[in-house]
Design a protein that fits this description.
Length: about 325
């Protein structure tokens, strides 16, 4: 082959590789990038992200532009985030600050629940496996932390840990589950962040498995919409949220039988609010800290249609539940 022919051959190969690289680069989405969209990036929209399906779920998530504000007359405070979506049609009923970074408080435990159930499905332990607490979880300088009566040496089943985690929001149970299924709390948190990316969440970062405040522990209302729909594919989530009172057994430090009676943290369930007959709260998780304020994430059946409702950062409990009731009535 002549020298000129060799040069042309290598130029052709180089051009082909360059075109392939540019095409591939355009299709790449950086999931480490912050997509919590400030006001000066409103030209970017969620529809530019790749479509994600729930694991085992056959429907695609609702999408909306980054700067969407829909039916905001329903909200009376501009600071909190709120989202309501018709799960069957993917119609967005309410959108307010849905990509804003918000503190999730104990709604974080939805992700903890997802990971534990995923590993249970893979055969790592079972719901009836017994866990013996190796050390009593502590929470640094945080005071008034919701935790169970269990201490080092007590034994409890995975099922009852999950009931205490989701129904009563015991923070120590989040740590015990994280250490049991992740090997350590830190490794479990890494798994939480990886799972969030896998599901298509783009505006959240977890630092712990329970939601006690850390400045770098945040979510968006849109990401919480994704998470609760992922969690809802597990039948146990639906079972837990049917209880108004749950009594379970565990073994104390002496190995003696003991019981704990717990009630839900959700005021729509525990009797504080009377729901109309066509409204049924299916699955839910609440959260409250000084910085996160009052939060709720739930799927509700209203007139035979399912809606996801996410509210993060209400100033008071009454404001949170009053808005929830207003949304129920709006959808009716």
């Amino acid at each position: 082959m002549k020298k000129s022919g060799i040069v042309l051959y290598f130029l052709f190969i180089f051009a082909f590789i360059f075109i392939l690289f540019v095409h591939t680069k355009k299709r790449y989405v950086d999931y480490n990038k912050d997509y919590s969209f400030s006001s000066n990036t409103s030209e970017v929209s969620v529809t530019e992200l790749p479509s994600k399906k729930l694991g085992g779920f056959q429907s695609v998530f609702a999408t909306l532009p980054a700067d969407s504000e829909i039916n905001t007359e329903l909200v009376k405070d501009s600071t909190y985030a709120a989202l309501m979506i018709d799960n069957s049609t993917k119609e967005v009923i309410l959108a307010h600050n849905v990509f804003k970074r918000s503190y999730p408080a104990s709604t974080t435990k939805i992700m903890t629940f997802i990971l534990v159930n995923e590993m249970l499905a893979d055969g790592k332990l079972s719901l009836e496996s017994t866990v013996t607490i190796q050390k009593t979880p502590t929470f640094g300088n945080h005071t008034g932390v919701m935790k169970s009566p269990l201490t080092k040496g007590c034994s409890i089943t995975v099922r009852n840990l999950l009931f205490g985690l989701m129904l009563r929001s015991y923070n120590d149970y989040a740590v015990i589950l994280a250490e049991t299924f992740g090997g350590s709390e830190a490794e479990f948190v890494n798994m939480m962040n990886e799972k969030a990316k896998d599901l298509g969440c783009t505006s959240c970062h977890f630092v712990n498995p329970h939601g006690i405040h850390e400045d770098d522990h945040y979510v968006s209302a849109y990401d919480m919409y994704i998470l609760i729909n992922e969690a809802s594919k597990y039948e146990l989530f639906h079972e837990i949220d049917t209880y108004k009172t749950y009594i379970y057994n565990y073994a104390d430090v002496l190995g003696l039988a003991a019981t704990d009676e717990i009630e839900p943290t959700n005021r729509l369930i525990n009797g504080d609010y009377q729901l109309s007959g066509n409204v049924k709260v299916d699955v839910w998780k609440t959260g409250t800290t000084d910085k996160a304020k009052y939060c709720i994430n739930m799927i509700v059946n209203i007139g035979e249609k399912d809606y996801t409702i996410v509210i993060l950062g209400c100033n008071t409990s009454d404001e949170l539940y009053d808005l929830a009731i207003k949304l129920f009535n709006y959808a009716d």
